[in-house]
Amino acid sequence: MTAGARLARVRRPVSLLSSGKCHVLRRHRLGVPALIVTGIYLSALTVAVVVALAAGDLHALWWMALFTAPDASIQVTWPNVLLPTLAGLVVAWALWEFLRGPLTGPPTEQDQDTRRLRVALYVAAASTLASPFLASWSLWGAVVTYVPMFGVVLLLSPVVGRTRRHVLILRVCGILGYGGAAVGLGLALSGHKVGALALVAGLGSLIWNVLVLRAQWDNDRFERATVKYGILALVLPVVLTVAGGLSGVPLEVYDDVVAVAGVLAVVWLARSAHDLDAPPAVSVPSA
Fold first, then answer.
1. Structural domain of 190
2. pTM above the 0.85 mark?
3. Is residue 110 part of a domain?
4. Is residue 283 part of a domain?
5. 27 compared with 116, residue with greater pLDDT
6. DSSP states of the chain as a string?
7. Across all residues in the chain, what is the average pLDDT?
8. Is residue 285 part of a domain?
9. What integer is the mean pLDDT of 121-127?
10. What angle do CA 244, 89, 53 make, to 5 degrees?
């Protein structure tokens, strides 16, 4: 085999790989900017991991991946480095899913209600992603994050609801869930007792999420993968909490990792908005 033939054989897989990456980027309207932002975050995360291992300092890694400072009692051990690193990879993936936008191609014709819903979904996704920073700045900032979800409840329910009764049930459950959570948190921060309001809010939001995910599953406008991410966002925190209690990993570490699992809700909200603007006659990507 000549040198030219060998070089051609080497170049071909590389060119195929490059073309595959370009194809993925071209499939999404904002693929290139999303890749740049995600790449910057991953680079910073890598530096934070190196600092943690080399200097024994977890602060940078904790802030990059878990959006909070580590407890003073937490030591630099392999679980305390591995778990935040994995959480950081999940955050990077959520950034990509959020920023990449819908598929390329002409957008679908949308009425005013759909456009408002997409805006509400994107704002809710952004506020959910920023909620750890807002909470670390002021616990009152966490109350603000419930406001966009309140808008999603009002606008999404008519889209996925099959009947007026179904829409009414969705709205009531969502208002009790997210409105009750915001009021309960505000009362707690003001020094008042929340009482049964916390139970009502938790049950209301759970029922709303279950009903919406079930309705999305039967709605052709939403990709099945989007619904699966929503289900995972609902189930994973519970699974991680149980697993943390059985693993022997410090409770402080697992509490922060479970909180990061909330970024799956960012993926679900962003993908729901993407799906509503997918080009006609083109299937939404499954990942």
1. 3-275
2. no
3. yes
4. no
5. 116
6. --HHHHHHHHHHHHHHHHHHHHHHHHTBTTHHHHHHHHHHHHHHHHHHHHHHHHH---HHHHHHHHSSPPPTT----HHHHHHHHHHHHHHHHHHHHHHS-SBSSPPPP--HHHHHHHHHHHHHHHHHHHHHHHHHH-HHHHHHTHHHHHHHHHHHHHHH-SSHHHHHHHHHHHIIIIIHHHHHHHHHHTT---TTHHHHHHHHHHHHHHHHHHHHHT-TTS-HHHHHHHHHHHHHHHHHHHHHHHH---HHHHHHHHHHTTHHHHHHHHHHHHHTTPPTT-PPP--
7. 81
8. no
9. 92
10. 80
Domain count, the chain: 1
The amino acid present at 194, given as its one-letter code, is V
**CA dihedral sign of residues 94, 99, 103, 108:** positive
pLDDT digits (tens, 9 = 90+) for 154-204: 999 888 888 889 999 999 999 999 988 888 888 887 888 888 888 999 899
Residue 177 lies in a domain: yes
The pLDDT confidence band at residue 83, using thresholds 50, 70 and 90, is confident
d(CA 174, CA 176) in angstroms, rounded, equals 5
pLDDT value of residue 137: 64
**Widest Cα–Cα separation across the chain:** 82
